[in-house]
Amino acid sequence: EVITLTPSRARDKRLPKDTKGVIIQRIDPDSAVADNEELMEGLVIISVNDRDTPTLEAFRRVTEKYKSGDTLRLLCLLGSDRRIVTLSVE
Predict the structure, then answer these.
(1) Is the distance from CB of 43 to CB of 76 less than 8 angstroms?
(2) Which of 22, 35, 78, 84 is at 20 to 30 A from 54, Cα to Cα?
(3) What CATH number has the domain spanning 2-88?
(4) pLDDT, tens digit (0-9, with 9 covering 90-100), for 47-63
(5) Is the pTM of this model over 0.85?
(6) Environment class of residue 18 by beta-carbon count within 10 Å: exposed (0-12), middle (13-18) or buried (19+)?
(7) What is the pLDDT of residue 1?
């Protein structure tokens, strides 16, 4: 489950208040991504395959077009650390 990163949530995570993205709020232990050790609750996703995801709606628009077997490249923030997480669509 992901939610939009609001300015107050950004402040709570000690990110600049103008940071845009979605936060992984919860990972279902039975989901396909649960085994990916790079994905964790609290991770902020700022883009998918080089397309910005400033809101939950934008994240859904970007990700809904991919099908099983496609690869997603997520640009993420954890604190001030930027990282790329790659995963396959199931």
Answers:
(1) yes
(2) 35
(3) 2.30.42.10
(4) 999 999 999 999 999 99
(5) yes
(6) exposed
(7) 92
Q: How far apart are CA 26 and CA 8, in angstroms?
A: 19
Measured distance CA(73)–CA(45) in Å, rounded: 10
Domain limits, the chain: 2-88
Q: Tokens for 55? A: 């809101």
Q: Please name which of 75, 72, 3, 74 lies closest in space to residue 42, comparing C-alpha atoms.
A: 3
Are the CB atoms for 24 and 45 separated by under 8 Å?
A: yes
- Whose tokens are 């845009």? That residue is 20
pLDDT, tens digit, 9 for 90 and up, residues 8-52: 999 998 998 889 999 999 999 988 788 888 899 999 999 999 999
- Pick from 51, 39, 52: nearest CA to 5: 52
